[in-house]
Design a protein that fits this description.
2 domains, 11 strands, 11 helices, three-stranded antiparallel beta sheet, alpha/beta
Length: about 325
């Protein structure tokens, strides 16, 4: 009798286990709770705006709230650290700029390893950046500016609101064989004021903040530092078209997860993100911000990050540039 009861009990437990399996699988299905996207910069900036452009679409695709969490400070390091140390379960993500790949080039004491501690999810967009000059300079092309700089070595300067701009300008200087003095500013607004006042002669800047001054004639766009021209200023050539095909200074916005996040979760996030980016309304809003939607999948995005880290590390070492 005891053996029969024991067998019956075991059979009952097995049946309960089978019945419980679907519920347990449902509990573990991703996502089963809100997903947090950490923006390592203040609200209102280009990264924050980009996050909010895709927020609603991602919520609908994931079936869970997507919470934007602004954690600014230390040039993005505070927010990135939070994500690097978060559980690798797909519920804490990082939306960052190309500064993500620049920071390790200039800071050897980060609280995380950029290459090791993050898993790329996907690229959202590239940002059109322009070489712009004050209209007081009597040059119309990038080639003419280079000729002027060679005729006046060290007498012209460039405005740098952030280290990524400084690295890009130093790279261009070395390729063009010119000398330009470096003038640092604490942010894009002061740098732009200096450009408008004629205190500095050239800078590399995203399209949106300078579109108005360019259209009013206060600033002149010499070249677009992207692979193709921007539709907002179709007559402005690319840097490659201006004769410097080897120069690249990509500016981008991408989504990352903590390293170790399961690949099915990464793939799910990328598929949903890419679908959101393909919607006409979202693409239009990105275009209005001077950005081109570029849904790059995880592996390709990872190669882009690795390439940028290598490029900017070499530039930083060549010019002895460390964190300011």
């Amino acid at each position: 009798m005891t053996a029969v009861l024991r067998r019956a009990g075991l059979a009952g437990l097995a049946a309960l286990a089978v019945l419980a399996t679907p519920a347990r699988a449902a509990d573990e299905a991703y996502p089963s709770r809100p997903v947090r996207v950490v923006v390592p910069y203040a609200a209102g900036g280009v990264v924050d705006t980009s996050a909010r452009l895709v927020q609603q679409g991602l919520q609908q695709a994931l079936g869970q709230p997507v919470v934007i969490d602004n954690r600014s400070g230390a040039n993005g390091v505070i927010g990135a650290t939070l994500v690097a140390k978060a559980p690798a379960d797909g519920y804490t993500l990082l939306l960052d700029l190309e500064a993500h790949a620049v920071t390790p080039a200039i800071n050897a004491k980060l609280p995380y390893d950029t290459a090791r501690d993050f898993a790329p999810v996907g690229l959202l967009a590239t940002v059109s950046r322009l070489f712009v000059i004050n209209d007081r300079l009597a040059v119309r092309t990038l080639g003419e500016f280079v000729a002027l700089a060679k005729a006046q070595p060290g007498q012209l300067n460039y405005a740098s609101p952030a280290t990524p701009v400084r690295l890009a300008m130093e790279l261009f200087k070395s390729m063009a064989g010119i000398e330009l003095a470096y003038v640092a500013y604490r942010g894009g607004a002061p740098a732009m004021q200096a450009m408008l006042a004629g205190e500095t002669q050239i800078t590399l800047v995203p399209l949106t903040p300078v579109l108005g001054p360019i259209q009013s004639g206060q600033l002149r766009a010499l070249a677009v530092a992207s692979a193709r021209r921007t539709a907002r200023l179709p007559d402005v050539p690319t840097v490659a078209e201006a004769g410097y095909a080897a120069f690249e200074a990509p500016s981008w916005i991408g989504l990352l997860a903590p390293a170790g996040t399961p690949r099915p979760i990464i793939d799910r996030l990328y598929a949903d993100l890419a679908a959101v980016l393909r919607t006409p309304d979202v693409a239009r809003h990105f275009d209005e911000l001077g950005m081109d939607v570029a849904a790059l999948p995880p592996d390709d995005f990872g190669r882009l990050i690795a390439r940028d880290i290598a490029t900017w590390t070499a530039v930083a070492r060549a010019h002895n540039i460390v964190e300011e």
